[in-house]
Specification:
This protein has about 160 residues and is mainly α. It has one domain (about 1-145). The protein contains 7 helices and no strands. It is elongated.
Length: about 160
C-alpha cells in the first residue's frame, strides 16, 4: 500500500477528488444561501444573528480551501479536515437530538436528503471523506519522505 500511495498520480488523483467534493459542496451552498440558512437554523446551534453570516462565510471558506487544495497550497488539507470534523460533530449533535432534517451538506438540491432525509447516512459519508483525506495526507508524507531520501542519496559521495 505504501508504494501505491507514493505514486505522484495517486496523490494527485486523491487530492483532486477531495478538492472536488468540497468545491461541489461549497458551490451548491453558495448558489442558494437562503436555503442553506434554513438548514443551519434547523440545527438550532447558532444564535439568531450569526446564522446569516455563517450561511455566507462557511461556503466561501469551503470553496476557497477546496481551490487551495486543488493547487496543493499548504494548509488547505488541514483547513478542510478541521471543517469536516466540525461538520461531523454537528451531524452527531443532530443525531443525538433525534433531528430528522436535511444535513445541508451539498446544498438544497442534495439527492441524499430527498432519498433518506436523515443525518446518519451523511455522517457515514463524512467518515468516508475523512478516510480519503487521511489517504491524501499519508500519500503526501510518503512522497515527501521519498523525495528527501532521493535528495540525500544524490548528495552522498560516490565510491568507485
Amino acid at each position: 500500500m505504501g508504494h501505491f500511495l507514493r505514486n505522484l498520480w495517486v496523490y494527485r488523483g486523491l487530492r483532486l477528488l477531495v478538492a472536488g467534493i468540497f468545491l461541489w459542496s461549497g458551490t451548491t451552498k453558495l448558489m442558494d444561501p437562503a436555503a442553506f440558512l434554513v438548514v443551519i437554523d434547523a440545527f438550532g446551534i447558532l444564535p439568531e444573528g450569526f446564522t446569516g453570516l455563517v450561511a455566507y462565510v462557511l461556503p466561501v471558506v469551503e470553496v476557497s480551501a477546496g481551490l487551495a487544495l486543488l493547487f496543493d497550497v499548504r494548509g488547505a488539507l488541514e483547513t478542510l479536515g478541521a471543517m469536516l470534523l466540525l461538520f461531523m460533530a454537528i451531524l452527531g449533535y443532530g443525531i443525538f437530538l433525534g433531528l430528522d432534517i436535511d444535513c445541508g451538506c451539498f446544498g438544497p438540491e442534495d439527492p441524499e436528503s430527498r432519498a433518506f432525509g436523515g443525518l446518519r447516512s451523511a455522517l457515514y459519508r463524512d467518515f468516508v471523506f475523512c478516510g480519503l483525506m487521511i489517504l491524501v495526507s499519508v500519500s503526501r508524507r510518503l512522497r515527501r519522505g521519498a523525495d528527501q531520501s532521493a535528495d540525500v542519496q544524490a548528495l552522498a559521495p560516490r565510491t568507485a
